[in-house]
Amino acid sequence: MAYTGTGNEKAVLASDLNRSHVGHTVSFEPDEFTVIFGRIGAIARKEGGVTLALDGVIGAGGLQSHYSLPPTQNVYVQPDMLTNTESTIKDLFGKVQDNLRGHKGDSSSQQ
Question: pLDDT tens digit string along 44-53?
Fold first, then answer.
């Protein structure tokens, strides 16, 4: 397989994962035959690799609850809905401010 995530997922190198990613839903390919979808419960950095522990996996169909990945491997992270919403609101607010500034300039030039 050559898994490259889905449309709304963001590729992050395993070495770039940090505490802000704990709790996020991720997908990754731990080997050439398997694609994992799960929620990060913990991240451990070790010399030469990164270990992801997944929430809710213990005893689930023989799946592992943790995976060791090379630091250069992509892990595909679902966007954080709260952060996306904040960014969208900030963008819209910025556009409204720009529009108001533009109209203010138009009205002063008409006087």
Answer: 998 889 999 9
Q: How far apart are the C-alpha atoms of 87 and 52, rounded to whole Å?
A: 28
- Answer left, alpha or beta for residue 50, where phi above 0 means left and psi between -120 and 50 means alpha: beta
Domains of the chain: which residue ranges? 1-79, 80-111
The dihedral through the CA atoms of 53, 25, 6, 9 has a sign that is negative
CATH number of this structure's domain 1-79: 2.30.30
> pLDDT tens for residues 14-48?
999 999 899 999 999 988 888 888 899 999 998 88
Q: What is the pTM of this model?
A: 0.66
- Token reading at 107: 């009205």
Q: Are 70 and 14 in contact (CB under 8 A)?
A: yes
